[in-house]
Structure formats: structure tokens, C-alpha cells
Known about the structure:
The chain is mainly α. It is built from eight helices and two strands; from the N terminus they run H-H-H-E-E-H-H-H-H-H.
Amino acid sequence: MTDVLAPLPVAIPLLCAALTMAIHKNMPRWTADALAIAASLAVLGACVLLGLASRARPIEYWFGGWAPVHGAAIGIAFSIDATAALVAGFIALLFALTFLYSWWYFESVGHVYHVIMLCFLAAMCGFALSGDIFNMFVFFELMSAAAFGLCGYKIEEDVALAGTINFAITNTAGAFFFLIGIALVYGKTGALNLAQIGASL
């Protein structure tokens, strides 16, 4: 059961975002709002189930079945304990409330808002559940890309444009230092998996 549940907090919003983009021309605006709220609540439900399942011991989910070989982690993993599931579930709840609050708000941009927000949700949940430091960086970059799009929504306004540029520069600098930190940790430990890094240190 956990093998099915573990990737859902990331897979559900990404699939809903892809579905929204694929059929947005034939989809009324209220349908996009309802689908986004349903996706957020589905992620919340999956996180609650994962939290309950991980109370006894953390859940290790290896993407593609790339489990550790002779103690060396060569694949990408989600390491889910009750705290990680709680954080991801809280994120999903906040997104559901945000979608509810913004119902019909961004009329001019149509369905783009929902797609960006769903990608943002997937990235934040992936960051919270990831057991691999480089995978965390990948989700951080996906969060950044979504955040840039959200900041630049009213790009015709000078304040929004200036804020977007400042945020992009600051965030890119932060990502650069994050990547340097990953390189230093990898150079010291020879590992990217968080559990393996902890054991090595």
C-alpha cells in the first residue's frame, strides 16, 4: 500500500496540471478551480495515510526500484516519517484553502494559474518528502520556477516586474549556494542520500 501512496503527493498535482493544460480549451473556469481543490485534498488525504503508516517506522520509497546496493544508495528515494507527512499534508491544506480563496480571482490568465500552483504544490511536497539532497535541490528549482511565474502575474505593473526580478536574482543566488553546499557535502561523504550522509558524518 505504501508503495502506491508514497509518490502520490507529487504525482497527483503534476497529473492534474497536465490534464488541465491538455483540455483547458474545453474546460470551464469553475472546473479548473474544482479540479485544483480536489487535487490538493487528494494530496492531503495521501499524506494523512502516509503519516499513519509511518508511525511505526519511516517509509523508504525508491523510485524505479533502485534500492541501495551493498549499503550504497544509488537511486532517488522518498524518506517519509510522520513529521515529513505532516509537513506535506499541511502544505496541501494551505493550497486547498488558497485555491478556494482565489476562486475566479485570476480571470484574465485562465487556467495558467492552476497549472503553476499545482506544479508548486508538487514541488513543495517533493521537497518535504525527499530523502536525497540533490533531489531536494531539483524540487527547490521547480518551486523557484513556479514562484517566478506567480510573482510575475501582473507583469504590466512596474512594482510586480521589479519584485519578480529581485526575487529571481535573490533566489538564483540562494540556489547557487545550495548547489555549492551539495557539492561540498558530496565531496566529504561521497553520498547524496540523507541517511547515508548522516551515517558518514
